[in-house]
Design goal:
alpha+beta, 12 helices, 29% helix, 35% strand, spermidine biosynthesis
Length: 410
């Protein structure tokens, strides 16, 4: 009876509207998707509903599987769909097949927002553990135990959850994907901020797009040279929950007089703004639909990178995460190619993020009208790095130092 139970709530679906009201069309999609994943159908029932005027309404459908079930409900008036897939893993591990079904169906409905849940079922009640799962691919996942969900909000943009993990303390999840945790946030935030800021040598102004947990803002405020930070986070609910629950990460950075918070789409802000910055940090959610969120997609295009180039001062830098070079190879290489087409110098590096369960790729890119040789642009000696750390009064670091800088860039 041990198994994996997955749900997905799809909102603002952009698919053909007929898929939400025609029984044959919907049942064929669900049936073919399930067979392609390699599961065994032993029965099925789909029922279409109608409004009082006899016009078509939504559909409820279920496939009975030898491995358990696939269920679906559509709400055409809300452009919404709920998916429910449960597979038994007693004799064979069918988890990858369940994940494949959910991913294929979500892709077919083309939702603008998705809320996902994952539950491991079938262990005795005295040992039952709620697990938060980070899907790195359809076949590989990292998971950690959750003892309590302390806050959960469905914002106009995404599903946000604050939970407690024995390993990581409080964690933030967005659309089912891990974002940050109290115990390991410094691996990500210090790697995102300090290699680029130290390479610059004395950043005074910075723009953070995303970054609603406040971790990257807190790291930038450690620089005595910083005079102004613009934090552009589209979803004010992320900042609201971070203020309430993640103070150990942001250290009340939101309240600094140096920080200006703007709730705007990052792409629109870059296009419309005339402000110039020494640093631009893209502290974004994953720009891939596997986690159900596409808020970050527009901020990973070549046109967006070119707009960022125009917003940077001379010798300014942009820094961003690229995902895993192993698990997200296509996304990684595509983003990197766009970055190289837009900036004069690009440097990649990798850092292991425990919460994500993988080596995570990052990149910093520089604007340099003087066109210094690329091979020399990011090469700072350990002595230079230590001097800049001292001059900038960069204190209270948990991870970053001169030795690590060289290891990251090796």
């Amino acid at each position: 009876m041990e198994g994996l139970h997955l749900t997905a709530d799809c909102f603002m679906c952009q698919c053909n509207p007929a898929l939400l009201i025609e029984e044959d069309r919907l049942s064929n999609l669900v049936r073919q998707t399930t067979l392609q994943a390699g599961l065994t159908i032993v029965g099925e029932k789909f029922h279409g509903f109608t409004h009082p005027d006899s016009s078509p309404a939504g559909i409820t459908g279920t496939l009975l599987l030898a491995e358990s079930h696939v269920a679906i409900h559509t709400w055409p008036e809300r452009q919404a769909v709920t998916l429910d897939v449960y597979v038994c893993n007693f004799e064979n591990d069918n988890s990858a097949k369940a994940i494949e079904i959910v991913e294929r169906l979500v892709t077919a409905f083309q939702p603008q927002q998705v809320s996902r849940q994952s539950l491991q079922r079938g262990t005795p009640s005295e040992t039952t553990k709620s697990m938060a799962i980070e899907y790195l691919s359809a076949h590989t996942a990292m998971q950690t135990q959750i003892t309590e969900v302390v806050a959960e909000v469905q914002s106009p943009f995404q599903h946000i959850q604050i939970a407690i993990s024995p390993e990581f303390g409080k964690i933030m999840r967005i659309d089912g994907a891990m974002m940050t945790s109290e115990k390991d946030e410094f691996y990500y935030h210090e790697a995102l901020v300090h290699p680029a800021a130290i390479t610059h040598g004395g950043p005074r102004t910075a723009l953070i797009i995303g970054g609603g947990d406040g971790g990257s803002t807190e790291e930038l405020l450690k620089y005595k040279s910083i005079q102004h930070i613009t934090l552009c986070e589209i979803d004010e609910e992320v900042i609201k929950l971070s203020k309430q629950h993640l103070a150990s990460i942001h250290q009340n950075a939101f309240d600094s007089i140096k920080v200006n918070i703007i709730h705007r789409d990052g792409f629109a802000y870059i296009e419309e703004s005339s402000d110039q910055y020494d640093l631009i940090l893209l502290d974004l959610t994953d720009p891939i639909t596997a986690n159900g969120s596409n808020l970050a997609q527009s901020c990973m295009t070549e046109s967006f990178f070119q707009s960022c180039y125009q917003r940077l001062n001379e010798h300014g830098l942009i820094v961003l995460h690229l995902g895993s070079a192993f698990y997200h190879a296509e996304r990684y290489q595509t983003s990197l190619a766009r970055l190289r087409a837009s900036f004069d110098h690009v440097q990649t590096f990798d850092v292991f993020i425990p919460l994500y369960g993988a080596m995570w790729g990052m990149a910093m890119a520089a604007k340099d009208a003087q066109h210094m040789p690329t091979q020399n642009y990011f090469q700072l000696s350990k002595q230079q790095i230590n001097q800049r750390i001292q001059q900038l009064e960069l204190n209270q670091l948990q991870f970053y130092n001169a030795e690590l800088h060289h290891r990251l860039l090796a």
